[in-house]
Backbone:
């Protein structure tokens, strides 16, 4: 093959992987494409490995980067709607990090051999996804296991493994199909046919794809929601985040929310749920009880004596003289004191009790400047989405809201709902239901808000918890414990819906153990990275 044809074939394979990954992705993709999407990338790596291409290491990295940039761009282009420059940075960085994973796989394979090399692909990729769930440059939107968000019937076993288990499954399927295709292209068709028709081949095929699906379908059809019924009202006020949200008065927005709630709430309602930052004016937490909007909510609860009110708010906390401020604290303009700004969830009940939770998984570049102790001087360049810019405050513990009748709710705020390991902290603290409060309107009518809603379906499976989701501009919905959307609103329409959910004390295997796949992969990644130079040293000593 000529050099021009070879480069063209590499380029085509690189693009093909990117397009297949995109074509498999929710919410309108064909999920089975995910089982072959990495095959062209594996094929490129195989050719570079066997042909010893001059300066191939950096050329190969370029092909990896191209594939992953195509996937990132086609799948999450909608970030541009909220930030133009920030979107290019996010897409480029995420593609770069992913390409490093594949480059490490190639280096490991060349230095340690075929079997350790292919094992390292699993280890590095799952380790990367785990890192991406836990560091401050976090963007786990494209965690591979999320590919089945619109097909929860195929991944009911996430209650044992979490989403990272789906990533392992996808990588295993791609490697299996790559081996088959490689042997065919190497004119070893008879060997392939013997393997496929052998018991070993059939067993491998079943283990890789068929058995997990069958097991999942069995779990799906036998599962029924467990627990005690709870009546929940979810409100979607449909306030434009680019104009009305932070330019109108908070009192008017609250009045709209309460008016909508009154169309479906009654004396049997246990919860009324509003979206993220439904109280946008900014409330000083030391004065919560005296704020006029809090008092308005307390009055409304007299009409619904069984109800507890959960909603989002922008809040502030001032540090007293001598009190050490947090690393995210802002300095007052007119004094030497500091304060923190929070994206907050509030629970208010008929007994005048107010419970507070501060969002703790923040959006990089919007709500947090990553590693602020180093890059804090860049706070002034934070993306302004209408609220407080610069880094917001967080809290270490997952606060579970407890109602007067003892019901315990996990109040996940927006982006937090795609972090399974993070959300397991709520389950370990006794949560019986999950309420997701969000504002997805920044992205416009794009796949972004639909992907976000569907990811919550996987959360329901991971913890076998019913979910109520209140979104400012859609989609608000209710999700049962096997990941089915049982009622939902439409985009860009004000609405309120009511449903009976089931609270329970179930602690799934994943809830108890979290992202154990990721922890194991992180440790093994370190061992592989140590083994590469160690192997080189040993070979050098043997040759001398």
Residues:
């Amino acid at each position: 093959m000529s050099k021009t044809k070879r480069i063209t074939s590499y380029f085509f394979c690189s693009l093909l992987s990117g397009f297949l990954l995109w074509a498999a992705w929710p919410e309108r993709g064909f999920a089975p494409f995910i089982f072959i999407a990495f095959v062209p990338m594996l094929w490129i790596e195989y050719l570079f490995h066997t042909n010893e291409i001059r300066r191939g290491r950096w050329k190969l990295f370029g092909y990896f980067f191209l594939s992953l940039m195509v996937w990132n761009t086609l799948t999450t282009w909608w970030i541009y709607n909220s930030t133009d420059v920030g979107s290019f940075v996010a897409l480029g960085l995420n593609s770069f990090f992913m390409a490093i994973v594949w480059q490490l796989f190639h280096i490991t394979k060349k230095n340690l051999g075929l079997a350790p090399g292919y094992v390292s692909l699993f280890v590095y990729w799952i380790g990367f996804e785990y890192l991406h769930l836990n560091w401050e440059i976090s963007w786990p939107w494209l965690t591979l296991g999320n590919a089945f968000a619109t097909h929860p019937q195929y991944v009911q076993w996430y209650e044992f493994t979490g989403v990272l288990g789906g990533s392992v499954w996808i990588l295993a399927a791609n490697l299996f199909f790559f081996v088959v295709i490689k042997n065919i292209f190497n004119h070893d068709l008879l060997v392939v046919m013997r393997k496929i028709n052998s018991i070993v081949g059939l067993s491998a095929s079943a283990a890789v794809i068929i058995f997990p699906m069958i097991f999942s379908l069995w779990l799906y059809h036998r599962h029924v929601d467990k627990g005690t019924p709870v009546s929940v009202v979810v409100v979607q006020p449909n306030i434009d985040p680019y104009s009305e949200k932070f330019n109108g008065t908070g009192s008017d927005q609250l009045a709209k929310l309460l008016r909508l709630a009154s169309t479906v709430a009654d004396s049997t309602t246990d919860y009324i749920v509003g979206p993220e930052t439904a109280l946008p004016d900014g409330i000083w937490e030391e004065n919560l009880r005296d704020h006029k909007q809090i008092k308005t909510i307390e009055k409304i609860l007299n009409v619904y004596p069984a109800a507890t009110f959960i909603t989002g708010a922008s809040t502030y906390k001032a540090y007293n003289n001598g009190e050490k401020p947090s690393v995210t604290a802002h300095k007052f303009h007119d004094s030497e004191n500091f304060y923190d700004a929070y994206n907050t969830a509030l629970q208010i009940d008929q007994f005048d009790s107010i419970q507070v939770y501060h969002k703790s998984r923040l959006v990089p570049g919007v709500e947090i400047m990553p590693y602020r102790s180093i890059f804090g001087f860049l706070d002034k360049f934070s993306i302004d989405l209408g609220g407080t810019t610069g880094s917001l405050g967080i809290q270490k513990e997952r606060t579970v809201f407890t109602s007067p009748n003892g019901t315990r709710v996990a109040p996940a705020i927006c982006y937090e709902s795609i972090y399974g390991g993070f959300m397991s902290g709520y389950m370990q603290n006794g949560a019986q239901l999950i309420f997701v409060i969000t504002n997805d309107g920044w992205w416009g009518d794009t796949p972004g808000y639909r992907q976000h809603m569907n990811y919550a379906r996987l959360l329901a499976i991971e913890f076998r918890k019913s979910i109520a989701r209140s979104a400012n501009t859609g989609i608000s919905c209710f999700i049962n414990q096997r990941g089915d959307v049982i009622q939902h609103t439409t985009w860009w329409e004000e609405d309120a819906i009511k449903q009976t959910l089931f609270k329970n004390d179930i602690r799934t295997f994943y809830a108890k153990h979290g992202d154990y796949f990721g922890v194991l992969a992180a440790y093994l990644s370190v061992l592989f990275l140590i083994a590469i130079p160690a192997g080189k040293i040993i070979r050098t000593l043997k040759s001398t």
Remarks:
- The domain at 228-311+346-359+396-507 is CATH 3.60.110.10 (Nitrilase/N-carbamoyl-D-aminoacid amidohydrolase).
- The chain has two domains: 3-222+516-543, 228-311+346-359+396-507.
